[in-house]
Predict the 3D structure of the following.
Amino acid sequence: MAFLEWLQGTWVGVLVAESLWGYPLLETIHSIGMAMMIGSLGLINLRVLGYKADLPLLGVRELLPLAWLGFTLNALSGTLLFTSDAVYFFDKWTFRIKMVLIVLGGINAALLGRRVFAEAAAPGAPAVPVALSTKWIAATSLIFWLGAVCAGRLIAYGP
Amino acid sequence: MEFLVWLENTWIANEIRTVAWLYPAFETGHYIGLSLLVGGIMLIDLRVLGFARSLPLKSMIGLLPFVWVGFLINVTTGSLLFIYGATNFGTNNAFFLKMSFMVLAGLNALAFDVSVRRSGGAWVAADEPPPLVKGFATASLVFWLCVVTTGRWMAYV
């Protein structure tokens, strides 16, 4: 708790909390980063599940830079928003659930990257259909990320 | 203004005020819709501009149904959120800007659609969008990001 209190007392935390533009600007960036991430990761996961089969499975890797850009924007803007009121946010269950969902989503993304992209992209690898267990990873990813969006929005309202 | 007052006192607006979880639920729905709508449009526009070339242009333009689902979710949730605070939102400059950018984005999308149809899809199949179409794609990215920005700013002006 002492750390959180220190954090929101730093000049960054105070700047975000008290400047006229800081908070809305960061929230706007957070919304745009969200659209980038959910758009690109959503399509990758749906493709793994078999939707839009006319997109080459390995080709959707090219969407990853957009997902990373969105993730970076949101990690940065989210951290700055957090510093403005660290004790309040950390105390919220909606915030904690959101963080857990992001970690789970990240683990799933890493698993998916290894299973689908690294293995299938190995030289001479046969074009095998996506395994059912891999589809489960994609399906739960969608749930984790959409859950993170919901939990994030509800920080302002929920416990 | 009378109309806004009337809207704000309709049965549905009162219901949203009475049932505490409705407003947060609609807002959350609005964010999910935003992700589908702007996420989908971004993928299409960026693909037209040359991003992720190993994904066929035609298939990516085929993401439009997604965009429409997001749009419908957001028109519905947005209207409900508006009714709840009609006198506030209806006099909010950020809201007027947001609606203006949506009209621009809509006209731009129409122009994009017309140019796809006029060309008979030739540039789509050849994966060679003409400069004019790339212009529409760029404008679309700008307009939709402005919609998100002004929408977010409604809470602050």
